[in-house]
Amino acid sequence: MNYIDPHIHMVSRITDDYERMARSGCVAVSEPAFWAGFDRGCAEAFHDYFRQLTEYERARAAQFGIQHFCWLCINAKEAENVSLSREVISLIPEFLDRPGVLGIGEIGLNKNTPNESTIFGEQVDFAASRDELILIHTPHLEDKYMGTRMIIDMLMGNRQVKPERVLIDHVEEHTVRLALDGGYWCGMTLYPTTKCTPARAADVIEMVGTDHIMVNSAGDWGISDPTAVPKFIIEMRSRGHSEATIRKVVYDNPLAFFSTSKRFDFTPRS
Ligand SMILES: [Zn+2]
Questions:
Q1: How much is the CA Rg of the chain, to the nearest whole Å?
Q2: Using an 8 Å Cβ cutoff, are 73 and 107 in contact?
Q3: Which residue in 164, 160, 34 sits closest to 107, CA to CA?
Q4: Structure confidence at residue 195 (pLDDT)
Q5: 239 CA distance to ligand 1 centroid (A)?
Q6: Would 263 be classed as within a structural domain?
Q7: How many angstroms is it from 161 CA to the middle of ligand 1?
Q8: How far is the CA of 216 from the centre of ligand 1 (A)?
Q9: pLDDT, tens digit, for every residue of 60-113?
Q10: In a domain, 267, yes or no
Q11: Domain at 243, CATH number
Q12: Closest Cα partner for 198 from 254, 246, 256?
């Protein structure tokens, strides 16, 4: 089955991963701007990173028949440094109109600190004032419910934000309803150890249905699996779900959300 991985950090992955993903049916990826595993020392490092996302990685993916899209921002972890964050945000307009840039993300909260909240709010303003799509990282484990609640309260407090133009990612059983009930899109991350396994994600789909929900690998430089989405497909099949139901989650939904970005220049396979 053809699928889209709506959240994966391909800059951290080797070429063999692209090959395995292509063989597994991956036709497109969307790569949010994120933490590199270490704090970058200056805004110029992000300038290079944005070039890598919009130029090099797009071309590398194309070699394997995978269409590459990306998002730009300062991530929640490095947003703790407010002055660096503002410098990075000022670089974004130079890159925002490049082909395949879907919007602003992944922004959000990491430890739910005041500095993170300040920069999150400024990036939401930036995106909403330009009617850009927003991709949101929700915190891990014990901070997740509180962080998701704070994020949704801030989104609701901004009159320019349209919920249908926001994807709230890394939802789990205890946060998925918060996101869906607010009218947002949501993403479940399939991780080998933390976050959702394919089986847990299938349980959530059986609980909330297939509207406005998608799954991703969030593959990055840590322990993660770039072919997690195909494993979810297998799990859903083993439970007797129809091909149309599975395709809605792994292909139709990301396609529908991304299609509302004016720079989503996706060519479907015929
Ligand atoms: Zn990510």
A1: 17
A2: yes
A3: 34
A4: 64
A5: 28
A6: no
A7: 22
A8: 10
A9: 999 999 999 999 999 999 999 999 999 999 999 999 999 999 999 999 999 999
A10: no
A11: 3.20.20.140
A12: 246
Q: What is the pLDDT of residues 211-259, one digit of tens each?
A: 999 999 999 998 889 999 999 999 999 999 999 999 999 999 999 999 9
Could you give the number of structural domains in the chain? 1
Q: Give me ligand 1 centre to Cα 147, in Å.
A: 16
Q: How far is the CA of 105 from the centre of ligand 1 (A)?
A: 9
Cα 141 to middle of ligand 1, angstroms: 15
pLDDT digits (tens, 9 = 90+) for 130-159: 999 999 999 987 788 999 999 999 999 999
C-alpha–C-alpha distance, residues 64 and 118, integer Å: 40
Residue 58 in tokens: 């797009």
Give the range of the structural domain holding residue 96, as residue numbers without chain letter: 3-258
DSSP string across the chain? --EEESS--GGGS-HHHHHHHHHTTEEEEEE-----SS--SSHHHHHHHHHIIIIIHHHHHHTTT-EEEEEE---TTGGGSHHHHHHHHHHHHHHHTSTTEEEEEEEE-SS--HHHHHHHHHHHHHHHHTT-EEEEEPPPGGGHHHHHHHHHHHHHT-TT--GGGEEEES--TTTHHHHHHTT-EEEEEB-SSSSB-HHHHHHHHHHH-STTEEEE----SSS--TTHHHHHHHHHHHTT--HHHHHIIIIIHHHHHHTTSTT-------
Give the amino acid at 23: R
Distance 214 CA to ligand 1 centre (A): 14
β-sheet bridge partners, residue 3: 26
